[in-house]
Design brief:
This protein is of the alpha/beta class. It folds into 2 domains: about 140 residues, Rossmann fold, CATH 3.40.50.300; about 60 residues, no CATH class. A hairpin with a 2-residue loop joins strand 1 and strand 2. Helix 2 packs across helix 3. It is globular, with a radius of gyration of 18 Å. The chain starts with a strand and ends with a helix.
Length: about 250
Amino acid sequence: MLEIRNISKSYDNKEGRIEVIKDFSLALKDREFVAIIGPSGCGKTTLLKIIAGLTPSSEGEIVLDGKKITGPGKERGMVSQNFALFPWRTVKKNISFGLELQGIANDKKTETVDHYLGITGLKEFAKFYPKNLSGGMQQRVAIARTLANNPEILLMDEPFGSLDSQTRSKMQEFLTALWERERKTILFITHDVEEAIFLADTVYVVARRPMRLKNTYQVPFPRPRKHELKFSEIFFRLRNKIVSDLEN
């Protein structure tokens, strides 16, 4: 279980102290898919960086399976919007990067990379370079590279934000299918209401800076999910409630 306990984050500048996050708490159960939705610039990315151990909080603590997080660790994998692939490495070599750093034996490394090439639909692109791939395919590589390190938790910071609408929809269905297969705990950051509802089991709505929890919604739709559910009355009502929270 991941516990976010009373996290606050502030910065000092010429005009004084800026509060980015204020007394924010929530808990993620193992294998749960959670979305946090809020306005752009409200502190969502800062929260992910604190969970990832990339930046310290001003107050509070992050606890994973009873242990306080004090820095980066391979049990937490992060996927961002900009793909962050190495342009000089092939798809296969990008996916194997973390395994190489860990000194994983070649046979185990090959087995792991081949597994994630397969489940992400990238086998036929193994020898391609990032420049030869579409945005959606590049994001698949980024996700496969993160999963290859076998993290307990996947931290996703608006990973589909730079994709066109059609590709974004396909990647949402890809991610839900991947989650059903891998069952990793996922914390997904977005400012797209429909995306949050379609992907998550639980949606947390956060207020504008300083970021704080505003409301929580349990998503009632069974899995597997298809985009047709977005036309249902239940989806429409839930969407309107969340939009109202964001606007008020």
